[in-house]
Amino acid sequence: MLKDMFKRKELTCVSCKKKIQYEEELVAFVKLPKERRILVGPFDVCLAKTAQEIYCKSCYDKKA
Description:
The chain has about 60 residues and is α+β, with helices and mostly antiparallel strands. Helix content is about 25%, strand content about 15%. The chain is built from 2 helices and 2 strands; from the N terminus they run βαβα. The longest helix is centred in the C-terminal third of the chain and has 8 residues, at about 45-50. It starts with about 25 loop residues before the first strand and ends with a helix. It comes from Bacillus mobilis. This is Cysteine-rich protein.
């Protein structure tokens, strides 16, 4: 379980299902967790666990 905490998680756009790559811009909707539930670790792992929606920049621009 501990070793899985630091594995890279694949972030995919909810609209086009494209895999988001390193250094690519993205838009994510995240609820701020309670103080006791704050996640620590690599950004993509924390984002994959907490984000309700993740969009690549082009899909979000089309949506807006």
